[in-house]
UniProtKB/TrEMBL annotation:
Name of the molecule in the record: Histidine kinase
Keywords noted in UniProt: Kinase, Membrane, Transferase, Transmembrane, Transmembrane helix
Pfam families for the chain: His_kinase
Segments forming domain Signal transduction histidine kinase internal region: 167-244
Cellular component, GO annotation: membrane
GO molecular function, one term: phosphorelay sensor kinase activity
Bilayer-crossing regions: 12-31, 43-65, 77-96, 127-146
InterPro entries, per database record: Bact_2-comp_sensor_kinase, HATPase_C_sf, Sig_transdc_His_kin_internal
Length: 358
């Protein structure tokens, strides 16, 4: 990382040096030489002073006035400073011309056989120099503004990345601890009835815990691992269900693997079991996952039964879904569609989620 930083810094210095060398060569050397007239030393001295002034103004503006004045939203002051500075530079060059008698020296260079007669100063060249000055100011302002924009964007991306990571950590904490405790209790009860079934359930639970602990540390995981996690979750949830609950589960066994954010589907499926199960009434839960052409489609539907606020299900209501909506917006931006319908005649909670995994 340090080597890369030094490389970028050295490259930036080199670009600045080459840029000024090219600018000075074209404007202050090649352009005068193109006239084919041998000019006096004082002229080249003025060119050197002019270029030095422009370089000084560029970096004073770049390192001081732009960050401390322009970026502080003091635009009128910034414009006034640069206008006065430009005028001061031109006045300095005019005084230099008068001091070395530049007009007479240039007359002798261009018309050596014609006697010199003082004439009013031609301010055309001074205006040209002022325009070059403002061009340099504009370039320095543009470069500083673009770099600030890039730095702000990089900072936003870093904040976004940290926010995604923190929200994923929060989501991991929100995967109901009561689910694991209840599952362990169910497994314990199974040991007295069906030892092999208890072993299988314990294996699934340990596999889920391994996924939560290790796979969620990554930004993305394999879709196949996410699907295995969902299957294990559903199988363990079945242990808690009575005969009054009917399940329709459609999850593909074979599909083209892809990368996906970990634990992105669980809150929607967990929500089905949180709020779609009644101890007194018949209930139906439908979960369907389809994967084709790098597009994942999740459809769920369940009845809506109010959980007691004193239960973990009641207290956790909506937290996982809100968090997942936020993660979808952060991670997939315009590459997903989410439709949730909880206002329908069937009194069902329906979810349709489509994610482009390309």
């Amino acid at each position: 990382m340090e080597i890369q930083s030094n490389y970028k810094q050295n490259l930036s210095i080199l670009i600045h040096l080459l840029g000024w060398a090219l600018f000075g060569l074209v404007i202050f050397i090649l352009s005068p030489l193109s006239s084919g007239v041998e000019r006096p030393f004082e002229f080249w001295l003025k060119q050197g002073i002019n270029l030095s002034l422009l370089i000084a103004v560029f970096y004073i503006n770049y390192f001081y006035f732009i960050p401390r004045v322009l970026f502080k939203n003091r635009i009128p002051l910034f414009l006034s400073i640069n206008l006065l500075t430009g005028i001061a530079c031109i006045l300095f060059l005019i005084l230099f011309d008068d001091w070395v008698n530049m007009q007479e020296l240039m007359h002798k260079a261009y018309r050596p056989d014609v006697p010199y007669t003082p004439r009013p100063r031609n301010y055309y060249w001074d205006i040209s120099q002022l325009l070059i000055f403002f061009m340099v100011i504009g370039i320095s302002t543009s470069i500083a503004s673009v770099q600030k924009w890039q730095a702000d964007e990089a900072e936003k991306l870093e904040q976004k990345r940290q926010q995604i990571n923190s929200e994923l950590t929060y989501l991991k904490a929100q995967i109901n601890p009561h689910f694991f405790f209840n599952t362990l209790n169910n497994i314990y009860s199974l040991t007295n009835i069906d030892v092999e079934k208890a072993k299988t359930a314990l294996l699934k639970l340990s596999r889920m815990m391994r996924y939560v602990l290790y796979e969620t540390e990554k930004t993305h995981t394999l879709l196949s691992k996410e699907i295995d996690f969902i299957n294990d979750f559903i199988e363990l949830m079945k242990m808690r269900l009575s005969s009054k609950v009917k399940l329709e589960i459609t999850i593909p066994e074979k599909f083209q693997d892809a990368a996906i954010a970990p634990m992105l589907l669980l809150p929607f499926i967990e929500n089905c079991f949180k709020h779609g199960v009644s101890s007194q009434k018949e209930s139906m839960i439908t979960i369907q996952i389809d994967i084709s052409d790098h597009q994942l489609t999740l459809e769920t539907s369940n009845g809506i039964f109010k959980s007691s606020e004193n239960t973990p299900e009641g207290n956790a209501s909506g937290i996982g879904l809100q968090n997942t909506k936020r993660r979808l917006a952060l991670l997939y931006d315009h590459r997903y569609n989410l439709f949730i319908d909880d206002q329908n005649p069937e009194n069902e909670f329906k979810v349709l989620l489509k994610i482009d995994l390309k």
